[in-house]
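task queued by scheduler; priority normal; single chain, no ligands, no partner chains; default sampling; output format set to structure tokens
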Amino acid sequence: HLALQFLSRISSAFLMPAPNRLSDLENCAIGAICGTADTTLLQSTNYWKNAQQQRLPFTMNPAVLYRGYSANVLNNGFCLMTQFYLNGIAKRMLTGGAREATPAEQIGSGFAAGLGSGVVCGPLELIMIQQQRKGGTILSVGGDLARGGPSIVSRGMLALGLREGIYCAGFMGILPAVRKHIRETYAHTPFGQSEDAARLTATFIAGPICAFASHPPDTVKTCMQGDIEQVRFKGYGQSAGVLVAESGIAALWRGMPWRLFRQCCAVFLFDKISAEVAPRLFPHAFR
């Protein structure tokens, strides 16, 4: 995923006005809320994206669309928790916890957090994609994959880490900087007259950039995880080569409209939760 998974937040981990004051546990709690909300509202778009990448038939059947939902809730929840946690640590290392991070620091810490989260997200996303293709429960599919050994469990993990690193760098660095600039510079216009207006405008600026840049590794990852038998897709380079040979370079961006739509919705949701829910849950961090 996604949890998910454009792009969260000026909290100690993302977009909060007091970016270094939330504790690690509080960062994890905000991440879990974001991940669960994202999956519950937008699971169907995740299926349609994965299906298009793997050339599976389109469906509107909820029983199919929400196949792998539990694994995806865990995936997005743990993924965002990990990203909030790692990003908070990276920001404190860069700033000493005494000042707000610069845009460059936000981008760097975001990339590191996203890359590191691949270790957590990879196996869970593998379970979800196998459920979407073949059905089964999270326990039965997870057990089958675990019996395949580390090479199966870690399949596609590097591509997923790269996807999340690019994605997180975008929404943790580009989005908050654009939103702040719009709010300060264009407050007299409809684009910046309120926090939500600036957030929405920044989403449609930062979102497509992050989606476009991070989609090729996502496509490679999805195809590799959908083909654990390695009938067509074996390694990272070979998988990318098969896709390009089959449909040209554009094949690496299969399913991007669904991912772009989902991420635009998700990043607005994440930023809203980070900027408005977190201060209500943890008011001591924003005094």
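post-processing summary
- Residues 1-20 have pLDDT under 50 and may be disordered.
- The radius of gyration is 18 Å.
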